[in-house]
Amino acid sequence: MAQVRFHDTNEYISSAEEVVTFLNSQEIIYENWGVDRLDPKHRDNYSPTDEEKQEILDTFKAEIDEISKRRGYLTADIIVLSDKIPNLDELLTKFKGEHHHTDDECRFCVDGHGIFAIKGKDGRYFDVELSPGDLISVPPNYRHYFTLMDDRKIKAIRLFVTPAGWEAIY
Ligand SMILES: [Fe+2]
Question: Where is this site: May play a role in metal incorporation in vivo (predicted)?
Fold first, then answer.
């Protein structure tokens, strides 16, 4: 279950209900699909083959189809970040640059953790710390950046309308 941390006070929102209420108030989509139905062979595998990636996508097909219909997403794929990637630090430096997109940025965390740091409607910055089973969709034009947590790894499903709408505007 995701947690929210405010940058200015370092305060956390940890109760599931309060996290959902807060993110809804920010018009950020948050869902908890869970990962219980995922075949254990996929857990903590940070080098999935194309076939394994497809199996993960197939596992969550009903949820992906439902949110895609609702939000107009046309493509789903899997992104993996871990220390197995030789230029991980370079990528993280890039991801830490604040930016926005013209479409939603939608991610479902399968393994590991990730942080979306978001500038809220009132200008206040907060982190949304994602755990396995969490889905977030950052709406268009919300300034944000992404980083990893202490485990330095994530495997996530990306959902998007078009690659163009998902380009970062710094
Ligand atoms: Fe982004």
Answer: 98
CA 142 – ligand 1 centroid, Å: 9
Task: Locate the domains of the chain by residue range.
Answer: 3-166
Ligand 1 midpoint to CA 88 (Å): 17
pLDDT tens digits along 64-119: 999 999 999 999 999 999 999 999 999 999 999 999 999 999 999 999 999 999 99
Binding residues for Ni(2+): 99, 101, 105, 144
Instruction: Give the full edge-to-edge strand order of the sheet including 105-112.
Output: 29-32, 134-138, 105-112, 154-160, 75-81
Q: Residues within 5 Å of ion ligand 1 by Cβ?
A: 105
